[in-house]
Amino acid sequence: MSNYHIKQFEEYYHVYRKSVRAPEQFWEEIAEEHFYWRKKWEKVLSWDFTKPEIKWFEGAKLNITENCLDRHLHSRANKTAILFEPNNPDEPAEHISYKQLHERVCKLANVLKEKGIEKGDRVCIYLPMIPELAVSVLACARIGAIHSVVFAGFSASALATRINDCDAKMVITSDGSYRGAKTIDLKGIVDEALDDCKGVASVLVAKRINSDITMKEGRDFWLQPLLDEAYNDYTAEVMDAEDPLFILYTSGSTGMPKGMMHTCGGYMVYTAYTFKNVFDYREDDVYWCTADIGWITGHSYIVYGPLANGATTVMFEGVPSYPDFSRFWDIVEKHKVTQFYTAPTAIRALAKQGTAFVEKHDLSTLKVLGTVGEPINEEAWHWYNENIGKKKSPIVDTWWQTETGGIMITPIPFSTPTKPTYATLPFIGIQPALMDEHGDEIQGNQVEGRLCIKYPWPSIARTIWGNHQRYKDTYFSAFDNMYFTGDGALRDEVGYYRITGRVDDVIIVSGHNLGTAPIEDAVNEHQAVAESAIVGFPHDVKGNALYGYITLKGSSEGRNQDNLRKEINQLITDRIGPIAKLDKIQFTAGLPKTRSGKIMRRILRKIASNETDQLGDTSTLLNPEVVQSIIDNAL
Ligand code: 7RM
Predict the structure, then answer these.
(1) Which helix (H) or strand (E) holds 266?
(2) C-alpha 402 – ligand 1 centre gap (Å)
(3) Is 404 a member of any domain?
(4) Do residues 438 and 563 share a domain?
(5) Which has the closest alpha carbon to 482: 502, 515, 453, 446?
(6) Rounded to the nearest whole angstrom, what is the distance from the C-alpha of residue 600 to the centroid of ligand 1?
(7) Burial of 352 (0-12, 13-18, 19+ CB in 10 A)
(8) Hey, which bits of 36-77 come out as E strands?
(9) Please, how many CA atoms are within 13 Å of residue 434, restricted to the half-sphere of its CB?
(10) Whether residues 589 and 457 fall in one domain
(11) Same structural domain, 451 and 570
(12) 401 Cα: distance to centroid of ligand 1 (angstroms)
């Protein structure tokens, strides 16, 4: 059915128009023809953005794991579902077939039930990128328990906050994890967190690094012996389409992380449909997303979307730099990867290493490249296109959020002509709007504004766990009857979208609105620059002035800094205009990043504004140590 697989640009427009003229009919057709429902819906959609309340496929019954596992057992029983690539390249990769995955999920489902987990209970999963992580997610879904995966790089206090916020009854973890040449004591972190979590009755522990850990009598259980005893089939719990599937925390601009709650039916339909089209997925492909399952990208595009399509999805335990910077390309060659989906921060880190690591490897199986997580700068886009895609593989720059559940603005490969740094066009069924500061929609092209979505799509988060008011305030109060994304975007002369960054990153200098991303693009064009972040700081005359934090490529670290400053500002003047020149340029050894690789501009803003006493929590950073050195050398 052509609606399910868009192959041409004209077809995109045709299907898009259909999807916005009659959204309910459109999604009903997709849902009807491509999924297994225990019972069909009574109503496709009911919504009210003022409450806000959104329901898709009300009255329908399903279990997402029957769609991800059981229905493939006829035709794909021995096909690899999960291809596990361990941290250590000398350890063999593990090919887990659909049949084996089904069995492993059913066994764990039985263990969860035996440990007292019921439909609707919350289970916190704190695991590294090993098969048990995907199996745990699916086992929860199988019994109707709500999983809350916490990225296994978060600290004990961050973990405790997340466990308590959703009253998780159980934690699934491992003795430890590998990360490049290091090991991390995960169980120790869980033990520390649980001192503050009185509601957790049991902890299941997978063995990964064979470390010597303490097991608390009556609370902690090794996973493997329980699985060995468990029955290998489990009749999936029948869920309502609107029953919760999972909670996933995302940090807000202030305060507590927000537990975004996603539901079963709509999330399944949208992640499966986007996966198929955004990656041009075909039956024998080997798809690899380098994200961690601890983030939404991993939930939607390592686990649920690929498995719902019967795909082979690669799960990589390690890091791009171990044993050396050729590891990604080594894996692409070894497993003949056809789709590769990663983040701009990874692309920049790899580009910094030059092309020698890439050239050693055969990347000819690649067909589609993806990027996600932050705006991709022009230089990184071209490096990716030339060196990885060899100018043959389209780059899908996919804009979306934890809150949206699935990809929202993206090219469709081999269909939408791409344009560097542009996420291009709304996906099927997505109705974006750009809004001005008075709350009016900005019509026409070559305009810039706040990015909102006018109409519900199946995988929008339904609430913030335990705080519906905050859900309403954060997403539905800035503009009437709109979902507000928190991002700014511009629409070019043909209607393509470019995400300019969080709106709090827009800086008004002498009355001119400047997005940080295009200035960073200009800076990054300089051959000595590895990475940059630009923030505003208060200025007497201009209102705001610009502060640039710049890391240099290793080969340029010894260059005269005043000359570099002049050259960089000249580049900005050339590309944007003198108004965008940086007032201060600080060369730094690194930039503070979140664990998902986003530059923490909030911290840089505080340093630039001389408010280092108000830095807030920096403990969840990937590299908290760079903060002090930036402060020490601040201008
Ligand atoms: C998937 C994910 C969401 C925020 C979002 C944006 C930024 C994500 C892109 C992007 C420019 C992109 N979820 N963002 N993708 N900006 N181009 N292709 O990252 O909840 O962790 O982050 O990430 O600001 O609002 S997230």
Answers:
(1) helix 264-278
(2) 8
(3) yes
(4) no
(5) 453
(6) 13
(7) middle
(8) 43-48, 53-58, 61-62
(9) 21
(10) no
(11) no
(12) 5
- Of all protein residues, the one whose alpha carbon is nearest to atom 22 of ligand 1 is 401
Q: Is 12 helix (H, G, I), strand (E, B) or coil?
A: helix
- Alpha-carbon distance 129 to 134, whole Å? 8
Please tell me whether residues 553 and 616 are part of one structural domain: yes
Single residue among 452, 475, 498 that ends a domain in this structure: 475
Ligand 1 mean position, distance from CA 114 (Å): 39
Pocket test for ligand 1, best of 487, 600, 620 (most atoms within 8 A of CB): 487
Q: How many other C-beta atoms are found inside a 10 Å radius of the C-beta of residue 446?
A: 10
Distance from residue 499's CA to the centre of ligand 1 (Å): 9
Q: How far apart are CA 216 and CA 629, in angstroms?
A: 40
Which atom of ligand 1 is the closest one to the Cα of 397? Answer: 18
**Residue 444 forms part of a structural domain:** yes
Answer yes or no: do 537 and 452 share one domain: no
Query: Do 518 and 584 belong to one domain?
Result: yes
CATH number, domain of 185, equals: 3.40.50.12780
In terms of Cα–Cα distance, which of 237, 305, 238 is closest to 39? Answer: 238
Domain CATH number, residue 584: 3.30.300.30
Residue nearest to atom 8 of ligand 1 (CA): 373
What is residue 348's predicted lDDT score, i.e. its pLDDT?
Answer: 86
In angstroms, the Cα distances linking 326 to 94, 338, 350 are 21, 17, 9
Ligand 1 probe mutation, 270, 377, 400, 598, most atoms within 8 A of CB: 400
Quote the pLDDT of residue 1: 41
CA proximity to 7, closest of 118, 15, 303, 309: 15
* Distance of alpha carbon 373 from the chain centroid: 6
Picking from 453, 475, 497, the residue at the C-terminal end of a domain is 475
Asked, for residue 533, whether it belongs to a domain, the answer is yes
Q: Which residues contact 136 (CB under 8 A, 6 or more apart)?
A: 108, 123, 125, 127, 147, 172
How far is 174 from 384, CA to CA, in rounded Å? 35
Alpha carbon nearest to ligand 1 atom 5, residue: 401
* pLDDT at res. 480: 96
> In the structure encoding, which two tokens stand for residue 313, read together?
């999805």
Residue 530: predicted pLDDT: 94
pLDDT in tens, 456-466: 999 999 999 99
Ligand 1 pocket list (CB less than 6 A): 250, 296-297, 372-375, 397-402, 423, 485-487, 499, 502, 596
Count structural domains, the chain.
2
Q: Is residue 389 part of a domain?
A: no
Residues of the chain scoring pLDDT < 70: 1-3, 251-255, 504-506, 508, 510-514, 543
At residue 305, φ and ψ (nearest 5 deg) are -60, -55
pLDDT, position 514: 66
Q: How many Cβ atoms are within 10 Å of 46's Cβ, its own excluded?
A: 12
96 and 227 share one domain: yes
For residue 311 the two structure tokens come to 């795909």
Query: How far, in Å, is the centroid of ligand 1 from the Cα of 63?
Result: 29
The pLDDT value given to residue 508? 63
177 and 102 share one domain: yes
What is the domain range of residue 187?
A: 9-319+398-475
- Distance from Cα 297 to the centre of ligand 1, integer Å: 10
